[in-house]
């Protein structure tokens, strides 16, 4: 279709679509694609760095229904990269998903946003994903990603993986039955503490934007029915070192004896590999026990935590004080990590907070 | 899990005698009908099995009427049946600061609701034992119940229940009922409801009786009449179905719902094992292990041992703390670095920990049991010594 034809059609189109003019001018989307976006239902798991960019782009693009799930509240250190939030949200002490909902309502009131303040886990993710056309990864940990992956494969809902740290990023489409799934690529979780996290090694705003913009673009292709144009690659980059790669992972699906997409064993969704949290008898502490066996290198974790707090360790365990927030929102925690990856988080009785701290400062 | 050195027998004993699992599997595979007094032969068979285990347990606690042995889901359930069945509005109750939440929480809830008045007597932190005189002084004309644990689940110390029982009989025979929580003792320390002057004995099946979880019971001694009790759990009884309310007949009055037949079959095998082996031998074995821990660690400045520095009046339970580690961390290290299972925390007994000054973090509780070997004990001793080095 010639551009002039599109422009003519747009003139006659539903006036509620006017705001999408520049997007509909792109022929592969057009009016039909825009209508498909309006009809689309998307689950956004996590509303931090990746999640806010995704929410922002997809709301502006006109995705009809967004369900945004996150259990966290906004902190001052989020504002450097979490584009939907500002100082007013911190003042009001809003949960991230609620603040995102309010902001999106001002950006594009035609988008229906459901804000869910919860810790995504194996008991609630199927309900959250039910009826969705796409699941988007805005998480910061492997366990939740494997959970999304299980739900995706089990219920045949595509998802888009995204991860970043410092200036490096990774992203990939997972189309059940067509592409490799996340467990074809990474069969198991990395040992806790092996890799730095955004909270121990930092992350730059542009890194976040690139990963989530890639995810958002793929989401738009998928939701507008342009599946043939979807990236079959694992996108990988380091923008500080000027390295961009498109890894061909097509064969991974045939090569890997994948427990998830080949054998349909949903080990994270069933809870088998889920980490367990126990509110410890005693004071204000939660124990996190991993669902898979692993070994932690205390030296590595202590090095990762050098900018967080003074970590000390002996042959039995590692201890590190963690302070979050400022002023009235200042909270003091203590992390005790054992060699099998289990941890005791002192300073909270809430499993969700303990899990979030583990993901942020130990990482898995 | 078989490489775990299990020192958490005060929570539940493990392993169980092989006959327990075998009996349960056999019963489940070939006999597990719903018992009933008027039914087909399998139902009658299941009822007979339950009846036989009732008799076994009644004999074991010195009871005289096995219909007064009521099965329950666990110790907590048995205690609830007893306390909620017995207490009426305006009653006064005396209990101790050693009690487990299974005694304490129902009583505190009733007291907070204004249903009963509650007095709690303390214990000596040196001996870990209550003084029956404290109970005597707390008695009031409306004292309906004295509820005392036989063995502290934090300190392992054995309480003078016979002295309390006889004192109550002497003072106000029948007006004040004496409830004993045998959770930590039945199966190792002798309990005799007649000679100890106990009105109601509540117990779990899965601790020192070495039975499966999901079992427990209470023995309601012959002095206590059905008129004194109300049914805490009401429902089907497998007989007397025409009666619009629970049949006024022991044990059925207190036993609503399909019983845990498979578990009770296992409990029968467990009690057989306990009787055949001799509880006194197990007690001596557990005491020797606790004494060995005390002997090895009592002089270590980094270790605090709570309660008496002798195992003579203990069951196989000992609480300690190691400097530099919270109880939760010490428990984590024992599990992670040494594959030793112990139980850190408050052990569901917050008042005891308050009295010991170990609230709210608690202690590390080490509880050897029937099947622990000296090799296992040595690994434990070395691990504790290494941590306290």
What does this structure look like?
The complex is a heterodimer of chains A (364) and B (389). In chain A, 34% of the residues lie in helices and 21% in strands. Chain A is α/β, with parallel strands linked by helices and 364 residues long. Chain A has 2 domains: 40-255, Rossmann fold; 276-361. In chain A, the strands form 2 sheets. In chain A, strands 3-2-1-4-5-6-7-8 form an 8-stranded mixed β-sheet, with helices on both faces. In chain A, helix 4 (49-61) crosses helix 11 (205-223). The N and C termini of chain A lie far apart (48 Å). By secondary structure, chain B is an alpha/beta fold. Chain B folds into 2 domains: 5-16 and 278-387, Aspartate Aminotransferase, domain 1 (Alpha-Beta Complex), CATH 3.90.1150.10; 18-275, Type I PLP-dependent aspartate aminotransferase-like (Major domain) (Aspartate Aminotransferase, domain 2), CATH 3.40.640.10. Helix content of chain B is 37%, strand content 15%. A 7-stranded mixed β-sheet of chain B has the order 2-8-7-6-5-3-4, with helices on both faces. In chain B, helix 6 (161-172) links the parallel strand 5 and strand 6 (177-181). In chain B, helix 1 packs antiparallel against helix 7 (261-277) and helix 5 runs parallel beside helix 6 (161-172). Chain B is globular, with a radius of gyration of 21 Å. Chain B starts with a strand and ends with a helix. Classes of the chains: A alpha/beta (364), B alpha/beta (389). Chain A binds chain B through residues 280-283, 285, 287, 315-317, 336, 338-340, 342, 344, 346, and chain B through 326-329, 332-333, 336-337, 344-348, 360-362, 387.
